[in-house]
Design brief:
400 residues, alpha+beta, Aminopeptidase, six-stranded mixed β-sheet, four-stranded antiparallel β-sheet, 10 helices, 18 strands, 35% helix, binds zinc ion
Length: 400
Amino acid sequence: MAESPAQLARRVAGAVSERRVMEETYRFISVPSPTGAEAEFAHVYAGVLDDLGLEVRLDEEFPSSPSVVARLEGSGGGPTLQLDGHTDTVPVSHDESSIDLARGIVRGRGAADMKGGLAAICEAVRALQEAGVRPAGDVLVTAHGLHEAPLGDQRTLRSLLRRNIAGDAAVIAELGHDHLATASRGMSIFRIRVHREGAPMHEVELREPISNPIAAVRLLLDRLDERAAELAGRPDDFAGPETLFLGEVHSGDFYNRVPVEATLVGTRRYRPPATTEQVRAELEALCREVAAETGLDLEVGLQEVGPAYALDPTEPVIAAVRHGYEAVVGGELPLAAAQAVGNAADFVSFGVPAVYHGVNQQTAHSDDEHVSGSDLARAARVLAASVIHFCGVEEKETTR
Ligand SMILES: [Zn+2]
């Protein structure tokens, strides 16, 4: 009798080696790849996938940050699942990396974010092959640099997506390990610039106190606070509360000089179906009022970090990861909203449904970044099981 997808998934999960995925993670950490300088590591990653028999190429549109594009060809007739990750780590130094097989811990920059996830992708493919399970659809593995802000701006991933180098759905091997994010708030960084005509002058020369840009700052602070309170008072929903947060206020350069400019910078997080255009209109309306009251010029700059989205709950990738998780971990993977803006937002904005499943990233970006072997193995097992459930599996000849 043919094995059910859950039985197949458990058989493949049995082929995952905790030791092997730990050692691979350690090897990946040993090749530093701070944002903008990922080429050496991209070659190492491409080499591992090549050794696994995938059809691999390096996309060198951004030569210092090449993208790895690798395909495991399916037997035919199934959808393509993309397993994706970023090759760069934050450019923050870390104590020497280490591996402790007895305790099951790998330490070093990128252990959690996300060389562990990238190693789990390789181990998932390896386990499928060792178990002799060939998916019906293709598995597309992509890994790209220029992810971590502020240097990383997702141009590598977005370029791949723009050129349709994508699966029918994607699982990004980070940010989720005990829940499945199917929705996310959008996030835009706003920058309000207040400006007056003329040059800096002595305070006693100022005729109209209101035309001091700092007067506009006071009005703006009040209005932004009011708006933030309004947003906080709205009933919460699945995606989480909308927020308006102010992180920077700048003005003035000397105690008795009237400044020419003031700048306020912050974030605005919004729920689907709100868009960055609506956020812009909201902030512009607020600034028009302050401009009318002060006679100063106000200008709103807005940079969308990621759009708001909510996946259709019937997207097959959601069931594939949940069924895969249930088969190899046991228990239900609860649905949730993503707390941070990650690459799923990019995928979704290009029409590719995407979710996250990787290792616990609690220590990401920290001074003691580490990942456990059991976590790496679990991620690899769930990724492999997700492939089986999403891509389908070739029907084997059965003896009659
Ligand atoms: Zn990351």
